[in-house]
C-alpha cells in the first residue's frame, strides 16, 4: 500500500507468463510494467471473472425468495473468494406476481449494500421459452408463456432497469417483435430453451438476438442430424454462445467444436445452483427434489443418477476444466470467463488487464490440484485475501 488511493499488485501475467507490477490508482489500472523474475512470485494476475448466468451459490438460491441485505453481502463475498468480481443473478420462469416480488425486493436490498457494484444486472431466463419437454429443461411448464412486452416492462420497472439480459425462445408468434423492442431498450436477448426452426432463429438474430444460452443444453435428448437448432445457432455468425464447462453438461469434443466455431464469441458460464460450493451429500431442493452432490461435483437426482439436477461448480472450476481438457490455454480460457462476457454485455471490464481498465483483478494459484484464489480486487479494493475467511 502506497497511500489511500494507490496500491501495487505483483504477479505473473496470465497471458504472457512474464512477471509484472500493476499499479492501481482510484480504482483503475494506472500502469503495468514488467519486472525482474522473482522465484517467490508464484501467483498469476488475471482479470476478475464475470458470470452472466448463475442461479445461486453456497446454499443461497436466487429463485426461491428475494434475498435480504445480509444474504446478498454474504453471497457476493463468497463469490469474491472464487474470483468472481461481476455476476448476473439469474431468475428463471415463474408467475408474474412472484417475478415482480423477487425483482422489487432484491433491488431494494441491493441498493442498501456497499457490494452492489458486483452485480452487473439480472439475467431473466424465461418465462418466454419452449413448452416442449427437453428444451424446457427444469423450468415449470405452469409458468411458461408467450412473450409479452407489457409484462416485461412491468417487471423491468420493478427491477429499476436492472434486467440486462433475457433468454427466450423465438418459436413464439410475438417473439420477433419482443426481441426488437428489448434490443431497442438496451436489453440483450439470448436464445435458449428453444425448439425453434432455422427460419425463426435467423429472424431472431436479424432482429437483435445476440447470444445462445448454454448452447447444447436445454435441448431434446435426440435431434435430427440436420437441420436442428444447435447447428442453426452455431452457424449464425452474429450469435455468441455461452457454455457450461463443468465436465458434466457437455463432453470435451462438443466444447472443442463450439470453441473452433465461435472463438472470441464463446463464453464460459457456471449456471450454478445453490448447492455449488457446498459439501458432497444428499440434499432436498426446490427444483429437483431429492438430489445428490458427488465428490467430483456432479449433481444428480438421487433416484436417477443419470439425470443432472443442475450445475454445482463455480465459474473458476469451469475455467480449470476447459484448460485441463486442452480445449484452450489458460489465457484464452480466462478471457472466455472475463473479457468476452464483459464485451458482450458492454461493461467496462471488457478492457481486461490494460491501463485505464477497472482494477477488477484476481491473484490465482494454479499450481495446486484445485486452483486457489489468493486475492481478489474489485475496483481496486481488496475484497478477499486467502486466510481472511
Molecular structure report:
By secondary structure, this protein is of the alpha/beta class. The protein has a single domain, classed as Alpha-Beta Barrel (TIM Barrel), CATH 3.20.20. The protein is 25% helix and 27% strand. It has helices at 69-80, 96-110, 149-158, 175-184, 198-206, 229-235, 252-262, 315-324, 330-336, 339-345; strands at residues 6-13, 19-25, 28-34, 44-47, 49-54, 56-57, 60-61, 84-92, 122-125, 163-168, 188-191, 211-212, 240-244, 266-269, 281-285, 289-293, 299-301, 304-308, 361-365, 372-378, 381-385. The strands form four sheets. It has an eight-stranded parallel β-sheet, with helices on both faces. Strands 3-2-1-4-19-20-21 form a seven-stranded mixed β-sheet, with helices on one face. A four-stranded antiparallel β-sheet has the order 15-16-17-18, with no helix packed on it. A hairpin with a 2-residue loop joins β6 (56-57) and β7. α2 (96-110) packs parallel to α3. The model has no long low-confidence stretch (mean pLDDT 94).
Mean pLDDT: 94
Which structural class should the secondary elements be placed in?
alpha/beta
The number of strands is 21
Helix content: 25-40%
Please report the number of helical segments: 10
Radius of gyration: 20 Å
In what range is the share of β-strand residues?
25-35%
Short overview:
The chain has 389 residues and is α/β, with parallel strands linked by helices. It has 10 helices and 21 strands. The mean pLDDT is 94.
Amino acid at each position: 500500500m502506497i497511500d489511500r488511493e494507490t496500491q501495487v499488485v505483483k504477479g505473473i501475467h496470465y497471458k504472457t507468463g512474464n512477471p509484472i507490477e500493476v499499479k492501481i490508482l482510484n480504482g483503475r489500472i494506472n500502469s503495468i510494467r514488467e519486472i525482474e523474475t522473482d522465484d517467490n512470485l508464484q501467483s498469476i494476475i488475471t482479470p476478475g471473472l464475470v458470470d452472466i448466468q448463475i442461479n445461486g451459490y453456497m446454499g443461497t438460491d436466487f429463485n426461491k425468495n428475494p434475498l435480504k441485505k445480509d444474504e446478498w453481502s454474504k453471497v457476493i463475498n463468497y463469490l469474491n473468494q472464487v474470483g468472481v468480481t461481476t455476476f448476473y443473478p439469474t431468475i428463471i420462469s415463474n408467475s408474474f406476481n412472484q417475478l415482480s416480488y423477487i425483482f422489487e425486493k432484491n433491488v431494494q436490498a441491493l441498493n442498501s449494500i456497499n457490494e452492489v457494484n458486483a452485480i452487473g444486472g439480472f439475467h431473466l431466463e424465461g418465462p418466454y421459452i419452449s413448452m416442449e419437454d427437453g428444451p424446457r429443461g427444469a423450468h415449470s411448464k405452469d409458468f411458461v408463456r408467450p412473450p409479452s412486452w407489457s409484462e416485461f416492462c412491468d417487471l423491468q420497472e420493478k427491477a429499476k432497469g436492472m434486467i440486462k439480459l433475457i433468454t427466450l425462445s423465438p418459436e413464439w408468434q410475438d417473439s420477433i417483435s419482443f426481441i426488437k423492442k428489448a434490443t431497442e431498450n438496451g436489453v440483450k436477448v439470448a436464445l435458449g430453451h428453444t425448439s425453434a426452426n432455422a427460419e425463426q432463429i435467423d429472424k431472431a438474430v436479424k432482429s437483435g438476438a445476440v447470444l445462445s444460452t448454454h448452447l447444447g443444453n436445454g435441448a431434446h435428448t435426440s435431434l435430427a442430424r440436420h437441420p436442428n437448432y444447435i447447428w442453426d445457432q452455431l452457424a449464425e455468425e452474429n450469435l455468441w454462445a455461452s457454455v457450461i464447462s463443468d465436465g458434466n453438461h457437455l463432453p470435451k469434443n462438443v466444447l472443442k467444436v463450439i470453441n473452433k466455431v465461435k472463438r472470441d464469441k464463446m463464453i464460459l458460464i457456471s449456471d450454478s445452483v445453490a448447492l455449488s460450493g457446498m459439501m458432497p451429500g444428499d440434499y432436498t431442493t426446490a427444483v429437483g427434489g431429492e438430489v445428490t452432490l458427488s465428490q467430483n461435483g456432479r449433481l444428480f437426482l438421487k433416484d436417477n443418477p443419470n439425470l443432472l439436477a443442475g450445475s454445482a461448480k463455480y465459474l473458476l472450476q469451469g475455467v480449470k476444466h476447459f484448460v485441463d481438457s486442452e480445449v484452450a490455454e489458460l489465457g484464452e480460457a480466462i478471457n472466455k470467463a472475463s473479457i468476452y462476457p464483459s464485451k458482450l454485455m458492454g461493461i467496462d471490464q471488457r478492457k481486461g488487464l490494460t491501463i485505464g481498465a477497472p482494477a477488477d483483478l484476481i491473484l490465482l494459484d494454479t499450481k495446486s490440484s484445485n486452483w486457489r484464489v489468493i486475492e481478489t480486487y474489485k475496483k481496486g479494493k481488496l475484497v478477499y485475501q486467502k486466510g481472511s475467511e
